[in-house]
Amino acid sequence: MIAESGHYALVLALALALIQSIVPIVGARWRDAALMNVARSTALAQLLFVAASFAALVTLHVTSDFSVANVFENSHSLKPLLYKITGVWGNHEGSMLLWVSILALFGGLVAAFGNNLPLSLRAHVLAVQAWVASAFYLFILITSNPFLRIANPPIEGRDLNPVLQDIGLAVHPPMLYLGYVGFSISFSFAVAALLEGRIDAAWARWVRPWTLMAWIFLTLGIAMGSYWAYYELGWGGWWFWDPVENASLMPWLAGTALLHSALVMEKRNALKVWTVLLSILTFSLSLLGTFLVRSGVLTSVHAFATDPTRGVFILLILFVFIGGSLSLYAWRAPALKQGGLFAPISREGALVLNNLLLTTACATVFIGTLYPLALEVLTGEKISVGAPFFNFTFAPLFVPLLLAVPFGPLLAWKRGDLLGAAQRLLVAGIVALVAIALVLAWTYGGATLAPLAIGLAAFVIMGALCDLAERIALFRIPLSLSLRRARGLPRATWGTAFAHAGLGVALIGIVCETTWNSEYIGSMKPDDVARVAGYELRLDGLNPRQGPNFREMVAQFTVTRDGEKVSVMTPSKRNFTTRGASTTEAALLTRGASQLYISLGDTSADGAIAVRIYHKPLVLMIWWGPVLMAFGGLLSLSDRRLRVGAPKPAKAAARALQAAE
Amino acid sequence: MTRKQRRLTLIGCALVVLAIAAGLVLNALRDSIVFFSTPSMVAEKHLGPGKRFRLGGLVEQGSLKRGDNLAVTFTVGDGGATLPVAYKGILPDLFREGQGVVAEGALDANGVFRADTVLAKHDETYMPKDVADALKKQGHWKDDYGAKPNSMPSASAAPTQGAMR
Amino acid sequence: MTLWFVFALMTVAAIFAVLWPLSRRGRADSGGSEVVVYRDQLAEIDRDMASGIIGAAEADAARIEISRRLLAAADQNGRDAPVTGSLSLRRAAAIVALVGLPVIASSFYLALGSPRLGDFPLAERSRVADANQPLANLVAQVEAHLEKNPTDGRGWTVLAPVLSRLGRYDDAVRAYRNAITYAGDSADRRADLGEALMGSAGGVVTADAKAEFERAVALNGDDAKASYFLGLAAEQDGRKADAAALWQKMLAKGPSDAPWRPLVQAALVRVGGTVPAGGSAPGGASAPALPDSAMAAAKDMSEADRSTMIKGMVDRLATRLKTNGDDVEGWLRLVRAYLVMGERDKAMSALADARQAVANDADRLRQLNEGLKNLGLDG
Predict the structure, then answer these.
(1) pTM value?
(2) CB 3.0-4.6 Å disulfide test: which of A432, A541, A585, C24 passes with A455?
(3) Given an 8 Å threshold on Cβ–Cβ distance, is C232 in contact with B152?
(4) Dmax over Cα atoms in chain B, in whole Å?
(5) Measured between CB atoms, which of C168, C259, C345 is closest to B150?
(6) Going by C-beta distance under 8 Å and a sequence separation of 6 or more, which residues neighbour residue C50?
(7) Where is A122: in which H helix or E strand?
């Protein structure tokens, strides 16, 4: 009953999406308000049904109904409740249902809060959303149906993989999806604008908060995924330039560019055509990311061959949406009106530079990720493009970007004063130079590039602070007056400062972790002492322990520094008895922003255990940076002027204005 | 500046950035690409010492030897040829004899593969894709590789099961 | 019946969602417009000027620009007001909803769904567990039990042989190990563990397995299974004399009615040892070796068992030849076996291996080539 109702709800959602794809467009064509309004009610109904469908799947997983093939294959009655729920999107079918549910959620939000959108724009946007949704419903129903049944239900489910039972792994995919799918809104707006043949300022005003929201989720999702890899995989790495990671980084880069170009468009009515293209590209990369990861094509070209319908369907969707929207762009973009003028040295100019560097960086990641795939398909030769490639291409493009970041907010719109901005950044420059000198002196004879990078990070952070100081006229007027000004500053300004500073914070973490990371790898016996970065770690002993469904070998280390006891760390190695799987549980000791990290290897015959100990200086800043950026984004989003719903007083004022005319 | 001049400046800037990026990409593609080989391919191609590549294959049964201070040696084979591998460090949780493995490193002067990274299969049924592809190409692939080897139970075990007790 | 009622309700709700806006007279609540945006921008310019970000001249210029757009937008607004559409279009849309929705939904659902299957949540199912369940389900239940009580030695003892029988050797190995840990060490369990280890190695007596058999024999010198497999280990290592000696000792010491006698005797004949007095050679004991004699023994087995058994034997032979390639007869037998099994590729690769193995010995090479000619493979 639950399974079949969920299935039927999904089918109904498809039917509604199909109607929503056509009727509003017809309505817009004949300027029929009632037909256009159909988009709104169907979008809400679609959300209702797909949410019911998703809730049904969750219920089935929770009650361990193994008559549903998806539950049988991906669950087990002994899983803890939390992992029964998160297991819903831990598999292909379930994750696709989550994807489309989020899509419907965003569609529903546009329908619910789109009061201040011009009617035909809203109809077009919702129709385009419905096209995407229809394709996904069809994909799910035909090739990845989570509601298929087994006539003779088995007594027990198949999956109890201990490695996957982790809260970090469970939470970050939905975050990433919220990000990916959030970009569908700007995509729909872009396609709607192309269909209508005009872009107005309201368009940009709407696109920016949605992009911002998606961007915040994506930023957090990427950071979470990275932290999960860091503590769970047991070798202390936090970014591997793995195709799966790149698949999420590409939309982030494009989305960041979009965020900034939408700003130019809203404020200055310029860069319209470019913003539309960027919206299309960002969502295309999101689609590509979802599918590359989901289709398994990145792990093996042959995954396509094992399930041809799924593979062909995926290719078809990618082709229709990416190819179709780009063709539409090529056809209709020339008809769009060009925007305002600006000098190369201006806020707009800085944002164009930002866009240029971000999209180029995105392109290099794209090449590095897809080149091996293309080469294998074309020549059959297998290569892997690893971290060195990305370090060589990505880093040189990011350095000028970071150098330019502090200048952007200080330049005026339309025609800026570079010299003036440089003067205002004098303090930041001095701080950066001092930082370089200090670090160089401290690590004399060490790496030369690292101090420069630290200086760059200091420049970015101080630049953000300088911008704030400039705006509240700190030290130029009495402090109380400055504080009052600070309170009066728009939240978006605060948000910008936080996000830019976050970039610098993350850079410091990355540079410190990669340059001054020290490690000890060796085998230790009880009472052996390892020395890492001024810490002494004594292995007190190895104790077996019985967990709920595993046995583990817990190693106890006493950590001392200069003879003083700091803490006790207990990394362990777990053996899951009936499954024969083993996992390594690393122990982390946080000291400020730095961490000590211990993971265990195998025990050898003579009772020694292989141990890996890392000291990672300032490593936590790598994740504090993105969190700061996301917080900045949130501040911007909460800005009245940007809020998703219509600014009520302003609307009233507009009415008054119209009445006056 | 006129509109046209401004646009030209913009396009010029874009072209410069793109040219730099293209240069970086081509340069990096030349220097930092790692090819994948199996022991047979290594034997055929006569890869010289010092050239980095990824080696994939199955860890030969009984070849794993542990030395002092986490040094390990083992042999990787693909049914056609074998190659000795030396590695220092902790092997992944799922490293086992008879299972697929991918190692990254280079040959030394004695023809021993010095690995600095060793990746093992990820779960019970996973085989590194490069290994699977290469084995398939050479006809050593059985579809249930990596799954339990229950398609070939021992000959002696079958008849004795009942008779011995 | 309830199910169809629920479906009907859901369909009606969906149709209602489409019809509702159509039924309302198209009020032109066109919502927001550009005008609002431009008003906000004007306000922002004032703010920026107040905080000194832009100068008065720039602010004026910007104000003029925005005001111009504002006027244009207000102008546009007047012209764009939607006309109230035609009734026929709405009727068409309504018909699409009334007919299209149920048709699309039911055609998809009927093709994919299984309306006759009810729910089977776990709570309901475990109540009706009975003896008719297939073996796999019982195993799953025992495993589930052991997952919660991993120190139940008796459970492991029961589970292990079943897993071994099912061919899940890796799991069986683990189960036997746990049985030994929690239910105590014994020669039987060690021997069974060794056998499971062999199973997971495809029938080869690995060093691990051998160690277990040796431990079993140490615990109980008379353990027949362990002794037999130690002999087999010797045979696989190429030490036929040792194997024969071991098996002869077994036959001499063991009771005359032991069920394993025929098997050990057959094995003994295979390695060329003489069967000691007191035991008669089993039928077909004089037959040369591997496939043929074993085939006879396998007569009573089912087709599937037989083929897996043969396959295992062939694999074992191949493994032995890899370590000791001098045995021309063995090579020929392997090639023939592969041909019979229809695996021509493997036969050819075995052939190549054989040539390589005996390449240094002219006599053997000639012998090999003649044999191959007889098999119809020359050159």
Answers:
(1) 0.74
(2) A432
(3) no
(4) 99
(5) C168
(6) none
(7) helix A119-143
Interface test with B, best of A360, A399, A552 (most B CBs within 10 A): A360
Which residue type, as a one-letter code, is found at position C234?
Answer: A
Chain B residue closest to C227 (CA)?
A: B164
Other C-beta atoms lying within 10 Å of the C-beta of residue C274: 10
Q: Which two tokens stand for residue C94?
A: 């309504």
SS3 C31: coil
What pLDDT sits at residue A298? 58
Tokens of C57: 């001249």
Per the CB < 8 A criterion, the answer to whether C17 and A185 are in contact is no
DSSP C120: -
Q: What does the pLDDT look like over A551-570, one tens digit per residue? A: 788 999 999 998 888 899 99
Report the alpha-carbon distance of residue C246 to residue A151 in Å, rounded.
Answer: 54
CA distance A587 to A569: 6
What type of residue sits at position A180? Y
ipTM given for this complex: 0.83
pLDDT number for residue A340:
67
Q: In angstroms, rounded to a whole number, what is the distance separating the alpha carbons of residues A549 and A536?
A: 34
Concatenating the DSSP letter of every residue in A549-616 gives S-EEEEEEEEEEETTEEEEEE--EEEEETTTTEEEEE-EEEEETTEEEEEEEEEE-TTS-EEEEEEEE
pLDDT at position B156: 30
Report residue C137 CA to chain centroid gap: 17
Q: Per DSSP, what are the bridge partners of residue A94?
A: none
Chain A contact present for C67, CB below 8 A = no
Question: Amino acid letter at A2?
Answer: I
Tell me which residue has tokens 């670090």. Answer: A439
C-alpha to C-alpha distance for A341 and A320, rounded to whole angstroms: 35
Amino acid at A41: S
Residue recorded with tokens 């008003």:
C39
Q: Is C360 exposed, middle or buried (0-12, 13-18, 19+ CB in 10 A)?
A: exposed
Q: Is C78 on the interface with A (CB under 8 A)?
A: no
> How many CB atoms lie under 10 A from the CB of residue A31?
17
In 3D, which of A531, A533, A651 has the Cα closest to residue A591?
A: A533
